[in-house]
Amino acid sequence: MATEIERKFLLKPGLWQPAGPGRRMAQGYLSRDPDRTVRVRVVGESAFMTVKSRRTGISRTEIEFPIALEHAQDLLLLCHQPLIDKTRHEVLHDGMLWEVDVFHGANDGLIVAEIELPSEDTEFTLPEWIGEEVSHDMRYTNSNLCAVPFSEW
Amino acid sequence: MATEIERKFLLKPGLWQPAGPGRRMAQGYLSRDPDRTVRVRVVGESAFMTVKSRRTGISRTEIEFPIALEHAQDLLLLCHQPLIDKTRHEVLHDGMLWEVDVFHGANDGLIVAEIELPSEDTEFTLPEWIGEEVSHDMRYTNSNLCAVPFSEW
């Protein structure tokens, strides 16, 4: 059972450009209950199920395992609709990996950058294109973005 | 994606006795939402995840796959509590398989028999120990039995 420690930021307008095509992913939620979110994600030919516990500060328990693509496609049909459709770009900055998610569909226009940390007090530097921190703004969780998408804010 | 067609019955008192020890199983729910129940089940060294859609009559869509025992044990900790603890006995009657679940813990005293059918109009005969049908009584679904256990009825 892993612990996910994550911080999330918006981007300053106009400063970041993707260096490549990124990886398009579809994901949906079988449970949006904050005590036990159940996510199904399909990236190309790969699929994963991820179950996360309630967040304490910026940390939470995460259990993730691969599942068959065929099962994932069936499960996505049962998930809360609409699904999350986004392209993930990986950006290395000062030795740390940033994931920049460019949303499509009902969340078109939203771009969010996340950094996963080995511990809550790990120090890191912010790329110049990083804007406001939204780690504690629950509107930006993917499980909320499929219930109240960015286009409806 | 399979379709589960199932009928469920109570037992007449005193007429059925288990022929063997059966298989003890622990199961919990990550989602009790009737549109997408997510069940984790551990039977001995095996573990499964099962996602079921909303029931239409006695039928519903079911997606089931094996998961690692280690993941299942972690997932059970995140499930709604208390977990379902029961012993399943398989009984052949007139060429059909009946599953008799003897519940323990918070559902102690409850015994339910289920038969899974290839189609809704499959004919079958009832063993003499079968009592009242409860296929449409939602109190008897396992996902409800972990929220409102038999001992609290």
UniProtKB/TrEMBL annotation, chains A, B:
Gene3D superfamilies: Hypothetical Protein Pfu-838710-001
Active site as annotated: 29
Superkingdom of source: Bacteria
Occurrences of domain CYTH (ranges): 2-153
PANTHER family in UniProt: SLR0698 PROTEIN (PTHR40114:SF1)
Protein name: CYTH domain-containing protein
Source taxonomy: Bacteria, Pseudomonadati, Verrucomicrobiota, Verrucomicrobiia, Verrucomicrobiales
